[in-house]
Amino acid sequence: MESRHSFFRPQAIQAYLQKQEKDILPRFFSPYTAILSYLLLFLLFIIGLFAWWTVTILR
User: Where would you find the membrane-spanning parts of this chain (predicted)?
Assistant: First the structure.
């Protein structure tokens, strides 16, 4: 009688399956907050560029 043994070690199979699972990143804040933060950052960047531009013109 032949017993069917796996070619791979059980620990190796388990490690392989765990790597195949989808990684889930923690949510520190909601997507709405992230979009709002990026919009605020963009707005501050535009205001900074406008302030720098007006100072260089007035010199």
Answer: 35-58
List the structure tokens of 40.
Answer: 């605020």
Model confidence pLDDT, tens digit, residues 5-59: 778 888 988 888 877 776 677 788 888 999 999 999 999 999 999 999 988 887 7
Torsion angle, CA of 34/35/38/40, rounded to 10 degrees? Answer: -110
What is the token pair recorded at 56?
Answer: 């260089």
Structure-token pair, residue 26:
């923690």
* Per-position DSSP letters for 26-56, written without gaps between them: --SS-HHHHHHHHHHHHHHHHHHHHHHHHHH
